[in-house]
Amino acid sequence: MNIRISPSVLNGAVEIPSSKSCAHRAIICAALSSDSEPSVLSGISFSKDIEATLGAMEAFGAKWELTDKESGTVTVYGIGSERVSGKRTVDCNESGSTLRFVIPIAAALGYDTEFIGRGRLPQRPIDIYTRELGRNGISFDYNNTMPFGISGQLESGTYEIEGNVSSQFITGLLFALPMLDGDSLIKLTSHLESRPYVDITIDTMKRFGIEIEETETSYIIKGGQKYHSHSERIEGDYSQAAFFFVANAIGSQVELKNLLPDNVQGDRQITKIVSETCKDGRIGSFRADCSDIPDLVPILSVLAAYGSGESVIYNAQRLRIKESDRLETTAAMLNGIGGDVEVTEDGLIIRPTNSLKGGTVDGCGDHRIVMAAAIAALGCTGDVVITGAEAVEKSYPDFFKDYTKLGGKANVIDLE
Question: Out of 91, 292, 295, 402, which one is annotated catalytic?
Answer without folding.
Answer: 295
